[in-house]
Write a sequence for this structure.
């Protein structure tokens, strides 16, 4: 027996800079950022926290302060999570995988209400530490890592291959950044919301050819929670 998952609530922090340097007197805590977002999302959904059967987290970066974060947050928020409590990871697909798994818990009948959620703090991590972690996540630590291969390097190689195979031009590739920024203008959660022209994108210095400054992601902090439910719960909300 399967149920069609419904999205009944959501909340998120605007993408930006929240993390404080490690020597700062006051620290921004992952738990506090995410807890506020979860409360807002569950309030938006119109359900009681006692109804939450499952939580699927995007796995935090390896320099996160709190280990076993999913277990910690379930206790911190006093959520029952009778069905499951898990963390998933998939590089740039992590958020989507968390959402898929939460939806699957509902579809398979294991949960009536499931959360897909996560928090990321990285903007105050020293650049050398961030680079070291990034290159060790990209490929073979005995072959790729010594040469400093980063995720952006992989993306650039993919872009070069795409241009070679399809005949796409540099301007056509740059138009993706223009399109994405056009969507961001009206999105209050977006990190960068000023409009961009194609000429501005093409004028930026190269980071890894053929990708320029406005075509690679900047470091950012944020938190998000999506509340999913079965149709029965969705119809019966207060």
């Amino acid at each position: 027996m399967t149920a069609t998952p419904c999205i009944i609530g959501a909340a998120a922090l605007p993408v930006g800079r929240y993390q404080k340097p490690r020597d700062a007197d006051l620290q921004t805590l992952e738990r506090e950022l995410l807890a506020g977002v979860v409360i807002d999302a569950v309030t938006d959904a119109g359900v009681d926290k006692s109804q939450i059967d499952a939580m699927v987290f995007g796995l935090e970066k390896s320099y996160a302060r709190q280990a076993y974060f999913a277990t910690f947050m379930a206790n911190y928020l006093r959520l029952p999570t009778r069905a499951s409590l898990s963390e998933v990871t998939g590089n740039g697909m992590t958020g989507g995988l968390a959402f898929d798994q939460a939806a699957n818990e509902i579809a398979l009948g294991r949960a009536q209400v499931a959360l897909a959620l996560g928090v990321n703090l990285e903007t105050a991590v020293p650049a050398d530490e961030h680079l070291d972690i990034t290159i060790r996540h990209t490929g073979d630590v005995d072959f790729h890592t010594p040469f400093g291969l980063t995720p952006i390097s992989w993306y650039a190689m993919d872009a070069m291959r795409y241009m070679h195979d399809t005949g796409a031009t540099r301007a056509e590739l740059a138009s993706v950044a223009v399109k994405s920024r056009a969507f961001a203008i009206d999105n209050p959660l977006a990190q960068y919301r000023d409009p961009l022209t194609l000429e501005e994108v093409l004028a930026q210095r190269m980071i890894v050819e053929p990708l320029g400054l406005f075509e690679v992601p900047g470091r950012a902090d944020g938190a998000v929670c999506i509340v999913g439910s079965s149709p029965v719960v969705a119809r019966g909300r207060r």
